[in-house]
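2024-03-11 09:14:02 DEBUG pipeline.ingest accepted 1 chain
2024-03-11 09:14:02 DEBUG pipeline.ingest length=598
2024-03-11 09:14:03 DEBUG pipeline.predict start
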Amino acid sequence: MLVNNGGLPRRLPSLPVPVEGESFPSWLSRAAADWQIAPGRAAQALGLECHPGYAGVRPLWFGTALTRRGLQGVGAATGLDEHVIEAMQLSRYAGTVLDFTRHDQPAQREESHTRLRNREWALFTSSRACPQCLAFAPVWPLWWRLGVAAVCPEHHVLLVDTCRQCHARLGSGYAGQPRGLTTRYEISDLDRCNNRRPASRRRKAGLCSQKLAALPTVPVPAELADLQQRILDIADGGPARVAGSPVTAAEFFAALRFTAAVVRLVATTDEIDACATLPDTAAAAFTADQQERERASRGGAGSQLQASPPSAAHAAAVLALSAPALLAPDPGTCQSFLAPWMDRAVALRRTPGKSDPLRPIPRPVCLDPLLRAAALPASRVAGVLARRPQSLPSFTADHLPHLADADDYTELLARHLPGTAATSGRRLAALALARLAGAVSWQQAATELAMDPAKAARVTNTLVQRISDAGAFWQDIERLGARTVERSLTDYAARRRMLAALTTVPHAVLFEVCHPLGHDVTVQRRRHAAAWIWQYFTGGDVREAPAYAPDLWIPASRSSVREGGRRFATWLPEAVARRLTAYGQALLDSPTSGKTAA
């Protein structure tokens, strides 16, 4: 490469003029053909900054964004204005279709290019193409390299992805190694594929000779071509609307990507077949991608809902299926499309062993209110509560025990939870009362009750699935809450705090009632008595009593301790129960109960 005194390439005597909207790889190929040299040599003549340490020519961020040094080199060699050179890079679409804001400058971090390729909807080492456009002139528009490129608005055909002769993606002749340009082969005929073909037994290494104009195409309806043009206008900074409201181009494409993920996840065969603007080829490609994603046992770029459309046909399906919702004239119409999709997405979340596949995808701000209104809550049971007209009851979570009253549970709620242990069902009832009191989730209900989160999660994740009639369940929970108010409200939270240190009952308290009955007062009996008092006044699970803390019973097993507690409750004489009740009430009435309960 010839350079001037400033270290920049010398001005070249002649070069092709960039066409408005042309991609940089297309222009470089035309320049190389005009100069009768290989593309790699042309890149060197232009002063593109390349990877050091590679035998081939591998420009940094080729066709995506030029480094500062590369931009200066191309400008010095060609005399082109910087804005003309930068307009041929994919970075032209930064802030509309593409988001480059989370990456460092190309010159500093070339490895971030890989992360960019994995996330953004663009073709970074190839291009789609319209054979009829290329038959007119060997100019490859930049927008053909966008993930949303699907249809030629002029010729009303699907864009072509791969060459039928070499079976490689079109425009990937420079990508034999990632973004590597050949220095061996001149491109003498721009009307041909020119992808690099490796040597085999039947042929020498060289360039693919497929005539681009001869590649077969698939016609599409005019409506789909018009939709493609509308998308491109927005990509170029034109006005954009979602559900009738004006948005920025970046917000529009964020909404498109989210909607595309939803339709990839839940679109039915009937919906795909009913899309009149979608050619059979595009419908088949979209359905095949859905099936492949369902078969994938793990993630991967091919199965991710956020991945760039893998083909023009798939992109066409994404646009055609998403457009009725995104481009709806008003929020109500948009929501009518979103509601059934979100209902199906919620159903998938409730499938055993499945997580929410839409969770990693950011919800666009412009769609969030509509999505919230359209989507059923993730829980079938909690969803009914969310839709019930109600006012907050007069009780709070502080007025609730960890276990609902046993008789109330049997009478009102046991029928909703067939095959459920009473203790577990009573715990769920307490959590449901906390939801009724204003907790917006089961987790928050457990927090407000100061309940063991693991135990709360077990009952809410398992038992709610046994409820067949969620509406009737919440009606009976409201009846249970009414009974709580009728019996006068008790601050169970305060009782739990006051009795948190009650691990044993003093010997004298038990001796005065046990000795006349001929019963000994042992350390174990004093602890079982403390657990009984805690359960009686807090309405909690006796197994969670402070007296049954594991470190107090070493080396006894938890099962033997629980069995001892069960036998104590069975044995407990009425006189002893009255004495323990009086002692517990005295502790609660004492101003120092939290300190001297033991």
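2024-03-11 09:14:41 DEBUG pipeline.report DSSP finds 25 helices and six strands in the chain.
2024-03-11 09:14:41 DEBUG pipeline.predict end
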